[in-house]
Design brief:
The chain is about 55% helix and about 10% strand. It is α+β, with helices and mostly antiparallel strands. It has a single domain (about 45-125, about 170-345, about 380-500), classed as Outer membrane efflux proteins (OEP) (Up-down Bundle), CATH 1.20.1600. Helix 3 (about 85-100) packs antiparallel against helix 5.
Length: about 500
């Protein structure tokens, strides 16, 4: 309400003193008026959040046939890629965490979610505004209003105002809950992106190292085939064999040389992919070829219990947090059915002349509550509530689906590792037999008891067995990285706790 300094009253002296105190210091009363609705808060509308149930069996089916981890084989924590024991891989993983552009996008989205959460918390506090203005105006001389001043008028004004919406029905609280849950979901998205990027790095890196091993194998094979060609040429020069033996040896040698060159194509592509993961241009990045053929073996990884996936998978945690955010949005939509109470207050100075502008007679103030309720909106609020409920149901389905997919990924990786271990054992036996066959057949050819076609056949079989064994090694290393990724890497849901604090 506005106080007119020219208004005369017949109030008692005591009432005049009370009025003067309220007029001269209205801000003394503002905190009490703003805090009063806290005692009037009835309830928070909308359903309270309960984590939806998700199917999680007691144990992984494929664990029954998989080598169980020993107590020393702890679950991966933190820098999980270090379980592979490769210094070059460790350096590359750090580069991926620091410079990967997909992670930079997720980190920016996390900061955006943090800002939204902070903005939602601002609803708990009053909005304070200030205004300073000076205006000149001239009213129409033909107006019929008798109160309009004639001629040009000047108005000087300075004021401070405050307004606050009392959160009687929990709309602000639900908005804060929704934004904080979304913030935690964004934190889970960032860790899921980090896990995916590092898993891709590990898989690409070991595929590249297996190609290095294949290159060394082919180089050793080429050296052996050159000796075989020299042997065939010597046999032909001595008149022991026909020209066809040298042609067969030459064909075998050149074909193997072509295979060695072919490995360079896939290796270059893997190197380029690693460069992009590390946030580098492929032209400025390189991984030196391995000088020796290192023995690659997947580490033993503890799969744990299926229920642990709910805490160890960042994508599952993010999906669950989105369910909580959607649940809070139902409360936000439901609060629109109830009246909104807003408390506002303002005070300042206003004068038509500059000299008495900041004097007591020029002071004005106003304060008071306002209660607003939408009486008819054509079903808009009902529609918005139905939308929020449907969005909640969708996030629940997404959460449950993410759990099922996670269980599938773990089972797939465990089955792949179990079966590949069996295959590797059988392949080692086949490789040993192929190597012995090459040695025996070569000696028989030197003795002149078999043709060179027999040598070519067993040598081709031995090379195929060698390459198959390396392919199995590559698949086992890739499956190991996939298992760690499926288990959530080194992440744990406890890290969500720091997200609310902006950590």
């Amino acid at each position: 309400m506005m106080r007119d300094p020219h208004l005369q009253t017949s109030a008692t002296p005591q009432a005049t003193r009370v009025t003067r105190r309220l007029v001269t210091a209205p801000w003394r009363w503002l905190p009490a008026l703003l805090l009063a609705p806290l005692f009037l808060a009835a309830c928070t509308v909308g359903p309270d959040y309960v984590r939806p149930a998700a199917q999680a069996p007691a144990a992984f089916k494929e664990n029954a046939g998989w080598k169980q981890a020993e107590p020393r084989d702890a679950e991966p924590r933190g820098k999980w890629w270090e379980v592979f024991g490769d210094p070059t891989l460790n350096v590359l993983a750090e580069q991926v965490s620091a410079a990967n552009q997909t992670l930079a996008q997720s980190e920016a989205r996390l900061r955006q979610a943090l800002a939204l959460a902070e903005g939602a918390r601002a609803g708990n506090f009053p909005t304070i505004t200030g205004n300073l203005s000076e205006s000149r105006a001239r009213a129409s001389g033909n107006t019929s209003a008798v109160t309009v001043a004639r001629g040009v008028t000047t108005n000087h004004s300075v004021s401070v105002g405050a307004s606050w919406e009392a959160d009687l029905w929990g709309r602000v609280r639900r908005s804060i809950d929704a934004n904080e849950a979304s913030l935690q979901a964004s934190a889970g998205d960032l860790e899921a992106a980090r896990l995916l990027a590092t898993a891709q790095l590990v898989q690409n890196y070991f595929q590249l190292r297996v190609l290095d091993a294949q290159r060394l194998l082919l180089e050793d094979t080429i050296a052996g085939y050159q000796k075989s060609l020299q042997l065939a040429q010597n046999q032909f020069a001595a008149g022991v064999v026909a020209k066809v033996d040298t042609l067969q040896a030459t064909t075998q040698l050149k074909s193997t040389q072509a295979q060695a060159i072919e490995t360079g194509v896939q290796r270059a592509q893997l190197e380029h992919a690693i460069a992009v993961l590390a946030g580098r241009a492929p032209a400025e990045f390189g991984i030196a070829p391995a000088a020796t053929s290192a023995t690659l073996a997947p580490p033993v990884i503890a799969a744990g219990l299926p229920s642990a996936l709910l805490e160890r998978r960042p994508d599952i945690a993010a999906a669950e947090r989105r369910v909580a955010a959607a649940n809070a949005q139902i409360g936000v939509a439901s609060a629109a059915f109830f009246p909104a109470l807003t408390l506002s207050a303002s005070t300042g100075f206003q004068s038509a002349a500059f000299a008495p502008w900041l004097t007591a007679p020029s002071r004005f103030w106003s304060l008071g509550p306002a209660l607003a309720l939408t009486l008819f909106d054509g079903g808009l609020r009902r529609s918005q509530t139905a939308q929020a409920e449907a969005a909640y149901d969708a996030t629940v389905a997404t959460y449950r689906q993410s759990v099922l997919v996670a269980l599938q990924e773990v089972e797939d990786s465990l089955a792949t590792l179990r079966i590949l271990e069996q295959e590797a054992a059988v392949q080692r036996e086949a490789l040993d037999a192929a190597r012995q066959s090459v040695a025996l057949t070569t000696n028989q050819y030197k003795a002149g008891t078999v043709s060179y076609l027999n040598v070519v056949t067993v040598q081709a079989a031995a090379l195929a067995a060698e390459r198959t064994a390396l392919d199995i090694v590559s698949r086992r290393m890739v499956a190991s990285a996939a298992l760690v990724k499926a288990l959530g890497g080194g992440w744990h849901a406890d890290r969500m706790a720091s997200t609310n604090k902006g950590g």
